[in-house]
Amino acid sequence: MKILADPVKAAGAQRYFKEKARFLGISSPDLRELSRGIYQKIRSEWGINEATRFCAFMLKNPYHEVRALGILTFERYRKTFPRSIFSTVESWLRADLCDSWALVDLLCPNSVGALLEKYPDLVEAIKVWVKSPNRWVRRASIVSFIKLAKKPVYLDAIYGITRSHFADADDLIQKANGWLLREAGKADARRLEEFLRLCGPSIPRTTLRYAIERFPKSKRKVLLLATKKPR
């Protein structure tokens, strides 16, 4: 990782984050290639327990890319995740070991999403995260469904969770909420439009603008007007 580090990239990476973060300056393609190389070396000897310990160790490092490498290695074992991994991931989030939108968005869609699909009862369990005082736990409750949004069976849960976040003033939550709604619209555009019209003024405008990105321009204008708060 020291060999791949680029001080210029490291300095430029901070502009994407409001919170202070530390970077080595390793590109995402290089990081994923490194993860693949590591996995090829360990796959015959490691199981989910070793991968979990490795990820927990890496998450304690101050550098973004080191923590990301731990997550990328961990998610390669998602097909063998036991149900207990849900609590493990929750503890990482609550301890702020994933303290940026990028780390939460790397960990949750693949790893937590795999858990939700493998253990359907966890769909109810993750709804508790909506009320967490920790912004990373709240964001995780949303982005964990990103990969599942294309499957109609999850849409009821998705619309329920996104609606629960409408009163959240955190822009990272509002953006994630709009992202998830946009993904849900790929599965059923009509249902998304009906939902937006129904909830109307209660939807933060940031969320709404993200949610309608895939609609034609003319439809976006109509929905922006139809959901506008009355003066």
Can you walk through the features of this model?
The protein has 231 residues and is mainly α. The protein folds into two domains: 1-115, Leucine-rich Repeat Variant; 149-231, no CATH class. It has 13 helices and no strands.
**Helicity, in percent?**
55-70%
CATH class of the largest domain: Mainly Alpha
Number of strands: 0
C-alpha-based Rg, rounded:
19 Å
Domain count, please report it. Answer: 2
The fold-level CATH name of the largest domain is: Leucine-rich Repeat Variant
Characteristic key phrases:
single chain, 231 residues, mainly alpha, Leucine-rich Repeat Variant, 13 helices, globular
Can I get a quick summary?
The protein has 231 residues and is mainly α. Helix content is 62%, strand content 0%.
